[in-house]
Amino acid sequence: RNSMSSLRKGNNENRKSIFYTTEEWELLDPTPKDLEDSMALEEKRKHLAEGSKGLTSSAFPFDFGRIPHKTRRPLKDMIGSSKNRNSSDSSPTDWYSGNGNKLSELQLKYQSQQEELEKLKKDLLSQKELVRLLQQTVRSSQYDKYFASRLCEGVPKDKLEVLHQKDDQILGLNNQLEKLNLEKDSLQQEVKNLKCKVGELNEQLGMLMETIQAKDEVIMKLSHQLSECEDNTSSQSGAVNSSMATCTNKELQELDRLKDNLQGYKTQNKFLNKEILELSALRRNAEAREREWQAKYTSLEAKLCQTESKYLILLQEMKAPVCSEEQSPAREVITQLLEDALKAETSEQPEQAFFKPHLVSEYDIYGFQTVPEDDEEEKLVAKSRALDLRSLSLSENREISAGVKWENYLASTMNREMMRCVELKNLIRCGIPHEHRSKMWKWCVNLHIKKFKDSTVPGYFQTLLQNALEKQNPASKQIELDLLRTLPNNKHYSSPTCEGIQKLRNVLLAFSWRNPDIGYCQGLNRLVAIALLYLEQEDAFWCLVTIVEVFMPRDYYTKTLLGSQVDQRVFKDLMSEKLPRLHAHFEQYKVDYTLITFNWFLVVFVDSVVSDILFKIWDSFLYEGPKVIFRFALALFKYKEEEILKLQDSMSIFKYLRYFTRTILDARWVT
């Protein structure tokens, strides 16, 4: 021992454990007898550890003081004792009825105690592992010190190294053994879990087998009942089967025939479906080609209308007076061409005609006459203008129509009330389609006149009309004089027998009775006539009320026309501000253009512009109000500003102002 101690004095640092620190541990050296006792005690504890699973004991050769603690009473025993106490006092029914809340609280406490118990078990396992490691470290330190002090004195160095290696191998094997023991415990735990799962599965399998067995028994019972029923049925239907055998054969033959027919119909249906698909493809191709040809035809027709218009203007310019008395052949050809161009279509067209003109409808969609009947020169200009309008309409049709946007908007307002919005305003400024204009005009009028209509009694218009017809009305004479002079170029007001004349009379009489301060003013008849093209009598009456009593100033249509004159002063100021060059040009040649614009404001451009532009102006006017009149008046002058500035005398300027608005044909400038 002394020799081993002397040899291993210098290698104590190599035996440091993982818990080694710079502080020195002070441990008392055990006597040889104590060491042998500790070795024997360790062997006994190892045997005890192998015999009992999951139990660990302290392997220290010396005794650590344990902290005494009070043992906890199991929660199940507490619940059991509580139940026993309650059962001794009262019956189970009374206990459950009186202590339902206490039972739920105890269950919650039981769950929380179980969770705490699981946590404590985990802490106990970790503490046991830590104690085991500390035991190993202390044992190794004790052995090192013992051998270093007693056994290693006088031992050669090479043997000491071998001894160190053996000790290291023993420690490594002990560590591996401990790891394997831990793995063994974990595997045993897994085996237990798997056995539990196998037991559960066996229970489920047993339950399923019992269920299947019960079902088999039910099936057997039902099969026995079915066999008994079949036997009874067979005995009863034996006689019937013999009599129905022949009928069954016929039915089978009929069934075979129907199956054959069905198969034939299926084959025929497949063939017809194939034919239908092929015909559908051919129809789509034909429709596509038709659309292409229609687009080309429309384009060519528009170009043809433009060419015919230019041709008519050229013929008019060529037909100039000649001083010579002789009739030249060229003049005869021009005269013949003019006659052919202005001649209406008849069933007997002369074959020798030099020119076959493009057909122009006598009236447009609003009922206005396209070509006058009196003056030949005016007829030529009017027909040229009509051809230009047709060319523009054909060009517009080739573009994406605004009708699709209107259809989408109206479809979105099917289940809700129409309201003012930016989208609707933009659509109206682009123009309301002909098929929707009646509905939209009525909505616009009701939008502005709602407070007036709500204050009137039902049948208000009919009452006014009845009073005007029965009693003397001072305005009725002037109304009768102006009826046929309202829109003589419109087929709805061209003769006394027209339906529009009677409607116009009724509306003007009813309004004169409603508003005796105005009674009747020239210009109201044209406003009503335009409204009646799309509205019924009563709606046209309220449209007139909207224009006179809501939109325009109070004295706009009185005898003094004071409001109209004020608007002309305002328009002059706008012209000087927005179009200063044109205003200065009018001032230079002393041209009073308000003589022309006064009628624009009074009747809202009726008989001043072509019908397409007129109704687009009215669309915006009925929605936005009188500011639209100022905007369009400025736009008309701006559109023709350069041409007006080229005129250098007052007569030519004034003459041009009288008809220049009729030369503006493209309604797209309005938008």
Helix content: over 70%
Average residue pLDDT: 77
Using the CA coordinates, give the radius of gyration. Answer: 58 Å
Oligomer: single chain
- Please give the largest β-sheet: none
Strand tally is 1
What best-fitting shape do the alpha-carbon axes yield?
elongated
Q: Which architecture of the domain at 394-669 does the CATH hierarchy give at level 2? A: Orthogonal Bundle
User: Number of helical segments?
Assistant: 23
Q: Which features does this protein show?
A:
671 residues, mainly alpha, Helicase, Ruva Protein, domain 3, elongated, disordered N terminus
Strands, helices and their partners?
Elements: H1 2-7, H2 32-51, H3 75-89, H4 92-98, H5 100-151, E1 152-154, H6 157-318, H7 329-342, H8 376-398, H9 403-412, H10 422-429, H11 437-454, H12 460-470, H13 476-482, H14 499-514, H15 524-532, H16 537-551, H17 562-578, H18 580-588, H19 594-603, H20 611-624, H21 627-639, H22 641-646, H23 650-659
Helix pairs in contact: 6-7, 6-8, 11-16, 12-14, 14-15, 14-16, 15-16, 17-18, 17-19, 20-21
Protein architecture, described:
This protein has 671 residues and is mainly α. Among the domains are: 254-318; 394-669, Orthogonal Bundle (Helicase, Ruva Protein, domain 3). 70% of the residues lie in helices and 0% in strands. It has 23 helices and one strand. The protein has helices at 2-7, 32-51, 75-89, 92-98, 100-151, 157-318, 329-342, 376-398, 403-412, 422-429, 437-454, 460-470, 476-482, 499-514, 524-532, 537-551, 562-578, 580-588, 594-603, 611-624, 627-639, 641-646, 650-659; one strand at 152-154. Helix 14 packs across helix 16 (537-551). The N and C termini lie far apart (120 Å). Residues 1-28, 52-76, 78-97, 322-327 and 344-359 have low confidence and may be disordered.
